[in-house]
Design a protein that fits this description.
By secondary structure, the chain is an alpha/beta fold. Among the domains are: 51-299, 3-Layer(aba) Sandwich (Rossmann fold); 419-554 and 568-648, no CATH class. The chain contains 22 helices and 14 strands. It has helices spanning 15-31, 35-49, 65-73, 119-127, 178-189, 204-209, 215-225, 239-245, 252-258, 261-276, 289-297, 305-315, 320-331, 333-379, 382-397, 399-433, 438-453, 458-468, 488-511, 513-547, 618-678, 680-698, and strands spanning 52-58, 89-94, 101-106, 113-115, 141-147, 162-167, 194-200, 230-236, 283-287, 478-482, 576-581, 584-589, 602-608, 611-616. Strands 4-3-5-2-6-1-7-8-9 form a 9-stranded mixed β-sheet, sandwiched between helices. The protein is flat and about 150 Å long.
């Protein structure tokens, strides 16, 4: 691995140097007021000081995520057992020497609490699943914010920017919040800068086949459409491969020959799966998290670490250095940390610092051009200078307004086009991922109800439903003859809950349209920017010709967008009809002709057994699903569209306002210049002194 990402900036500028540049300009503008430039510098400084890089660790099945995160800590902080443990998202804020604490947020309305005392012990309680909590105070945790330093995963300087590491809820989460956690994981994936997709070596084939959470599709979409998104694939518990390598091995030579065979097979299988999803040249790492944690936490008593290390000592007998380097390489954690740190501290940092430097230089150049322009104008003969200024003012009061009007008309057209495109994307995604799935959803729900009514447990019923739903015909009533009585309310409740779960599964697929929406908005930004630049360049060119000087630039602004998603499903009682028919009997004579005393005897004979019949009305179910989700979808659709419409209009309005302010301010500036020409000799001295002061503060 050890790949170097990108190239280091040629000037290799530091955050401290960027701050010095900002401070020098701020000192200058404190003496020579310029509100626009001061505001711009404040924005640059704010972004520079609040850079956050988000990394999510996700899995589509239980894979030892918590043990992996603990290995990064070098200490057992999060609960880690053989079953899925994490029932809430944990946001980890890591900086060297950070004050260790956690803030716990609850889903039941309780006020958040801060935990500092016995942090490692307490966090294990709060982070585990509700069903494993013995004390109610640890239940209903919605989110954990943990402030705790990683051992090696960090930026080269704690002042550069912060890393937020998100341990998503366990993929096997159940209960009231299980569905919400699945949505949360997909939403997190759509918002982070990097994802670590973790697989369990012992269940690799099942891991690769399962995509109940839709993580593969979300990652595929992000990978294809976001060039800045990084995805690392991790095969955890790789030490289990060693057991496969050494199976039936008789001696050390055989062990050497088998070294790494099953590890490579696992890498190849994961690589093929990634390729199938369109992810070429995937970055794949193998990690032995359990032993990496044992190694770092110095847990020696009754630890399997010694026997694990013994294998390396027996196979790599050349020198101590050889077995130790092979052992460290096999743990995998060091290489992964090194590569993440290398990416963050080279390519990412360079990109952030270059953006800040470009913005600082833009402010600096604007002021420099303005000063030189004033000096040039004031240096001209008064008659020529006055003529140029009048010409510029006439342009600003006439043709510049027409330029602005034309620009706003183009903005309006682009705004309408972008709004229509966003609406079409939302409508199409809702149609394809929700409305067109209603028939399938109804069939699966019916097959599930059949299985539940037939006595299967919910898990088996789900498997049966997915396997046999295609046999359901929605145009025909489903009538089931049952062997025993059932609780219809329970069947209805189970059916309703499962239908809601199905709907949530389809709904999560909608989340993947977020990348398309972001791309559409980015295209709109580019189009607005293009029009803005063309009009700006035209205005600057004509002002320059009028004044015979250079004019400072104006920068386009961007706008953030946000959206939410939430639905519910309720199935009415009318979908199910449960009938009980008593057994039928007839009376037969039990007399014997030659025994008169029996002539009045009779027997009661059953002619038909009792019947338990469950009838499911597919059309009623389909109608109820349709009606339930239509209201929710329409409400959400309007909200989603309104969010993007607002962002689109905000961008249009912001840049229209910037241009208008620039034109008006330029008029005021030239008015002042007109007055300054009348006392040009004195003003020229003032401008020269100002220019000299500016150069002294901004010289390289």
């Amino acid at each position: 691995m050890n790949k170097i990402y990108g190239e280091v900036m040629q000037n290799n500028i530091t955050k401290s140097e960027l701050r010095n540049k900002i401070e020098n300009l701020e000192n200058y503008f404190s003496k020579y007021k310029n509100n626009a430039s001061t505001k711009k510098l404040e924005e640059v400084k704010e972004k520079l000081d609040n850079q956050e890089y988000k990394i999510a660790v996700v899995a589509n099945m239980s894979s030892g995520k918590s043990t992996f995160v603990n290995a990064l800590f070098g200490k057992e902080v999060l609960p880690a057992f053989n079953h899925a443990t994490t029932d809430s998202a944990t946001y980890i804020y890591s900086k060297p020497n950070i004050e260790k604490k956690a803030e716990i947020f609850f889903s039941d309305g309780k006020k958040s609490i801060i935990v500092m005392q016995d942090l490692e012990k307490e966090i294990k309680q709060y982070a585990q699943k509700d069903e494993d909590c013995e004390d109610d105070k640890y239940k209903n945790v919605e989110r954990i914010e943990l402030y705790y330093p990683f051992e090696n995963l960090q930026t080269s300087s704690s002042e550069d920017f912060s890393i937020t590491f998100i341990d998503t809820p366990g993929p096997n989460s159940t209960g009231d919040y299980g569905q919400k956690h699945k949505d949360q994981t997909r939403s997190v994936l759509n918002s982070v800068n990097m994802a670590l997709f973790v697989f369990d070596f012992g269940q690799l084939d099942a891991n690769l086949k399962s995509d109940e959470q839709g993580l593969w599709n979300t990652i595929k979409t992000r990978y294809e459409k976001d060039k800045d998104f990084e995805i690392y694939f991790l095969i955890n518990k790789i030490d289990m491969a060693m057991e496969d390598n050494f199976k039936d091995v008789k001696n050390v030579d055989d062990a050497k020959n088998n070294w790494g065979i099953h590890e490579q097979k696992a890498i190849d299988r994961l690589k093929k799966a990634a390729n199938d999803y369109g992810i070429t040249e995937p970055k794949i790492y193998t990690v032995a998290s359990k032993f990496a944690l044992l190694d770092r936490d110095d847990i020696l008593w009754d630890s399997p670490l010694e026997s694990f290390q013994k294998k390396f000592k027996q196979i790599f007998t050349d020198t101590t250095d050889i077995w130790e380097s092979k052992y460290i390489e096999y743990l995998g954690i060091f290489e992964l940390e090194s590569d993440i740190n290398n990416y963050i501290n080279t390519t990412l940092k360079d990109k952030i610092f270059k953006t800040a430097l470009d913005n600082i230089e833009a402010v600096k150049n604007d002021e420099l051009i303005s000063l030189i322009g004033r000096k040039q104008t004031l240096s001209k003969p008064k008659e020529e200078a006055t003529r140029n200024v009048n010409k510029a003012l006439a342009f600003l009061d006439g043709k510049a307004k027409k330029l602005e009007e034309d620009m706003n008309n183009e903005f309006k057209e682009l705004c309408t086009k972008a709004t229509d495109e966003v609406n079409n994307l939302i409508d199409s995604a809702i149609q394809n991922e929700l409305y067109l799935k209603i028939d399938e959803m109804a069939k699966i729900a019916i097959a599930y109800a059949e299985a539940i009514a037939g006595g299967e447990n919910p898990n088996n019923a789900k498997r049966s439903a997915k396997q046999f739903y295609t046999k359901i015909i929605l145009e025909q009533e489903v009538s089931l003859e049952l062997e025993d009585s059932i609780d219809m309310n329970q069947v209805l409740s189970e059916m309703q809950n499962y239908t809601k779960t199905l709907f949530e599964d389809y709904k999560r697929n909608y989340l993947d349209v977020k990348s398309d929406l972001k791309n559409s908005f980015a295209e709109y930004e580019r189009n607005i920017s293009k029009v803005f630049r063309e009009v700006k360049d035209s205005l600057n060119s004509q002002l320059k010709d009028a004044l015979d000087i250079d004019i400072q630039t104006i920068e386009i602004q961007t706008v953030d967008i946000d959206s939410t998603l939430g639905f519910d499903v309720i199935i009415p009682d009318s979908v199910l009809d449960y009938k009980y028919q008593e057994a039928e009997y007839r009376t037969e004579s039990a007399s014997t002709w030659y025994k008169p005393w029996t002539w009045r005897d009779t027997n009661r004979v059953k002619t038909q057994d009792e019947k338990y019949t469950l009838t499911i009305n597919p059309q009623e179910l389909k109608k109820s699903i349709e009606e339930n989700i239509s209201g929710s979808i329409n409400q959400f659709s309007e909200k989603e569209k309104e969010n993007y419409k607002k962002a689109i209009n905000d961008l249009r309005g912001t840049n229209s306002s910037i241009f208008q302010d620039f034109r008006i301010n330029k008029q005021k500036e030239i008015d002042e210049l007109q007055n300054a020409i009348k006392r040009s000799e004195k003003e020229l001295v003032v401008v020269e002194e100002q220019l000299e002061y500016f150069n002294s503060l901004t010289k390289e």
